[in-house]
Amino acid sequence: MKKLIALMLAVVMVVALGAFAPAASAETTVKAGFIFLHDENSTYDLNFINAAKEACENLGVEYLLKTGIPEGQECYDAAAELVDEGCNFIFADSFGHEPFLIQAAKEFPEVEFCHATGTQAHTVGLANYHNAFASIYEGRFLGGVAAGLKLNEMIESGAITEDQALVGYVGAFPYAEVVSGFTSFFLGVRYVCPSATMQVTFTNSWYDPTLEKEGAIKLISNGCVLLSEHADSMGAPTECESNGIPFVFYNGSAADACPNTFIVASRINWAPYMEFAMTCVANGEEIPADWTGTIATDSVLLTEVNEQAAAAGTVEKLEEVKAALLDGSLKVFDTATFTANGETLTEYLADVDDMGDFVPETNVIADGYFHESEYRSAPYFDLFIDGITNIDA
Amino acid sequence: MNNKTRTPLFHVSKRGLLPWYKAWAIRAAALLLALVACGVITSLVTGQNPIQVYAAIINGSFGSPRKIWVLLQNIAMLLCVSLAVTPAFRMRCWNLGAEGQALIGGLAAAACMILLGKTLPNWAVIACMCVASLAAGALWAAIPAVFKARWNTNETLFTLMMNYVATQLVAYYCVVWESPKGSGTIGVINPSTEIGWFPQIGSYKYLLNILIVAIVCVAMYIYLNYSKHGYEIAVVGESERTARYVGIKVDRVIIRTMLLSGAVCGLAGLLLVGSTNHTLTTTIVDGRGFTAVMVSWLAKFNPIWMILTSFLIVFLGRGSGEIATKFGLNRSFGDILTGLILFFIIGSEFFINYQIHFRKSGGKEG
Prior knowledge:
The structure holds 2 protein chains of 2 kinds. Chain A has helices at residues 2-19, 21-25, 43-59, 73-84, 98-107, 121-124, 136-156, 176-192, 209-221, 235-243, 271-283, 314-326; strands spanning 31-35, 62-66, 89-92, 112-116, 129-134, 166-171, 197-202, 226-230, 247-250, 262-268, 290-293, 300-302, 349-350, 362-363, 365-366, 369-370, 388-390.
């Protein structure tokens, strides 16, 4: 009897599947291949590796990871090998992978290629090549708010005067990605602590613990009472911890290593983009040439606030500001909140189309704010605003 | 004392020349032991089935036609650098600067592509690249060679330090020529015009490199074994005094050989930039300058054997990558296996050259 029921059920299923066959055939089975510059020992790549695993496991997608792929022909070879293995979605995580991934995209038009942090997708004219980034400036703005609250607490307690609210920032390179980051951080600080000013120093390296530590020492000796940074080592945070200087971090929490001074950190979560892109592949939908993840897509995340170092009420205030960013009532790069060379900006040409000419061609200011990461996903805010001093210049 | 003549548990003595089949039997036994040791360690540390791991290593090199091409291309590039260091090594001149010599050759090639790409026709740019790369590599080797010939400076340290100078120079020009602005990387050079890109033979991306290196390999074999220069190199390597006694100008041989060594390194840089990558980074040579030392030594400085030793090293390296992807193991695990296998292979040379005598059981009474 059971057998009979099973048989009937099977027949029903076959008929049902047959009936829905046209709909089912539009579904493509995704096999994903990922290319990483280093392995999990690099915090940068680890962030991507975790996201890749999470996204694939959420969607039940089969995947292959290739780690330690240099920014050269090896990247093309790795991509081509992944195609040979049957991957129809390929993702690479490092800026320098871009030209080699484009080379593969040209050769395999049936495979979708996605590249994090790149700039060329909107001009290269390939339907199967895409860039992505996140509006991490929103995360840094929130980090700035937390920092500003800490400054306010120090002013109220009499530890510093209003004029002494000097913030320090250790940056990697003086490029748009970093400039956009520290400007949004500074605007966040000033959003709650209007008297704040900032000093910036650059290490000219993405990862150099010694230089980052030295940068921190320099800033602290200049009188900075709070630090933040954009580089990939623990050099600056550990220096802050030993000097009792509160700081806001990037890429992940430092609460374990620096329990007394770590306030909060922002990071990019790549899983939403990966899930979105792979779902597009599965449904045969087009992936946009540029995709910018936001707080709303969960692409920009804050770590837990370290209550031991943060000012009282930080968590509540961050929730409030985050809500304002989400509903659009607050813009990070609101031109009313900053000046450059003493003037309010009404127009600014940025080099959005990366044609190798270095010629800025796109006006990115409209409706009273700078439209960061909207004309392409990678940042292009490269302006030094008033209140920020580059101490290396 | 009555045990004055006590013999040690074992002692080692130099062997006479072994017949070739015995030497190869020892090598084969070493390889077999290495595979067993790797298998045991694999199962203990990762819990994976060692047979599957070996299958993955082989698949990493031979799994598809593309993988075979990549394997051949990598062998060609490693072999090219190994061939470059060999004439110097035969002379007992330890050129550890192959990394820098290849890098500076690559820099010269990239400079021609970037600076002349807009003014000269393609064939002229490629001709300039060839001349510039070989000359730059030769120059980078000539500096330490002249110092060694004139003032007997230590070439090991000198060539080693020249690597860092080359790396920093390339790092500097990566910023000067960066594209797009702010990236700190050069990106693909002349992507639309493809000026300075070496021609592709049919649909085979890497065939040109492989052919060029094959020719260099045969030429180097003939040069070292059947030319007067090759003989002079061998004599200087055996004994500088003998060389002087028979009227060989040692200084000249040192400089000439290092020039050749550097020029072939420059060729490797040229092929990497002009033919394979079409870009320049500080890491483009990828440590081949140092791996080449091992390739050359393992093959006892014989260019033809070097095909085999560079195959071995590239094969193991590609296998490491495959294991990492297939089993989700860290790439370092593959490197550990590679290290183990090389340890056994190099160790086998000891047993080919030396014999171990154990104390005979009755020997105690001496």
